Fold:
Amino acid sequence: MTTKSERLLLLIVALVVVAFVLAPLFLMFATALKPDENQILRDLGNAHAFWINPSDISFKNFEAVLANKTFPILRYMLNSGIIVVSIVTIGIFVNSLAAFALARMQFTGRNLVIAFIVALIIIPMESVAIPLLLMMSAIGWVDTYKAQIIPFIAHPFSIFLFYQFFAAIPKDLDEAAYVAGASKLRTYWTIIMPLSLPTIATVAILQSLEYWNAYLWPLMVTRGSDARPVSLALAQFFSTPPPVWGNLMAFSVLMSLPILIVYFAFQRWFIQSTIGSGIKG
Amino acid sequence: MSYIKRDRRAAWYMLAPALLMIGVFIVLPFLMSVILSFTDQRLVPNPNVPTSFIGWRNYVRLAEDGDFLNAFWRTATFTILVVPLQSVMGLGAALLINTKLPMRNLFRGIYFLPTVISMVVVSVIWSSLYQREGFFNYAVTALSFGAVQPIDWLQNPYTAMPALVLLSAWQGFPFQMVVYLAGLQGISQELYEAARIEGANRWQEFWHVTMPGLRNTHILVAITTTIFAFKLFTQVQLLTQGGPSSVTDTLVRVMYMQGFRQGKVGVGAAAAVVFFLLVLGISLVQRLLVKEERAIQ
Structure:
């Protein structure tokens, strides 16, 4: 049905889109690997911006960024790592446990709690940021990891995703476990959670992306480099004139690498989780 | 009986950590936002001037204040430009991948890449493209054979907003692509076969089978993209700080500047409440549209 020439046309269109998608990323990698800032400035003004001769590759910018004492990038990446891993791991337990109770247990007020949690999905973080900041400074949490972790562990949308998945698992499984003498907590841990790996992955990916790239909240709640995440650090590095493009792009590459590696390893799950997030709203 | 009772108590124990944290970190600050919006609270309180309730004055100030209205219209402009652009790009890419294209999964994997890149990184990369000596000016000058002078894309009041729209669409379109792909795969093949038997060409197929089949996907994409667009902040704060001449100011930025930078918590909270109501309104429209569809079927 699809002729050869049509296929060729499709392929050409697809490659044009590839160029549009990849050009800015090529620019980032190429610029980061060019040793001479003057050459970079010249290249940025024409098509050389997107390319580097393999023989010109140099890690000078990376060395400079890693040696920069004012913007200790490894510290920032560690900060982001601690924050993201804490939110994701603790969050998975807290949210899935709540969802398990809602989806697979009987108690009065259940439907009310479900409605309440679904209603809360709509509240954007932006509209509670200022009072949350007042709370954080009242309890002395400004400029800490805690302030960037604890408020974001319980997450209505993650509870909802888990709830939807748990509710679809046949109830016979629980009954069999009950007959075998398993407690509810045991059923949750040994039967339901192992079945839920796709949803766990979805929640983990969505949360990781959100907090690795967080900007507004750290901008308000961090002061020095102690607890500052990497995205905000890049923003401040970028806002310190004059821009040294080679260093900026090396910083950008370093910051993007962990996410890119995880993306290439779990590509299918990333795309699946995006569909999951589309149900939101 | 005792089994059920035990079950009940266990359920509440399991819910407790999540409900407690939701109460403290979402519900409480949300209520505080509403209450603070009726006060003259400052970020750094002045011990000599206690905080007091001032009624609707913060809201009146917002309504009369040019900055807030300006930010509303600029955010709306951004939304009106970015939502169709991003949706069409997403639909186009999804249609492309949904054909008999060779190596579809590879293409899908590449197209998805911008979305995993942080908006801060995206802003850094695109600012190098938009600068006066950047690639865009090179391309414009070359394509016009030197007739068009270099433009300061992010400093020019006419180009700053479109420049932000383009980089935001580049970063965001894979989301729409993936949602449309799921929508396309939900359309029954029988409909296409029936259309072919009727002698429909590709164009007719697209308008009479594909587009109607995507009705709910369109609504979902439009609403979620609109809400995303309304939260515009990072790229603006990094690239234009709301300028030039405030043409790229946004609601979240006003909230941040008033409530945080200038320390006027009351005004910032009022802006936050209005922002919330707008987001709520948008998602209610979605619920209505999707319900109506279900009622028809």
Q: What stands out?
A: Residues 42 and 76 of chain B are 29 Å apart (CA to CA). Chain B has a mean pLDDT of 89.
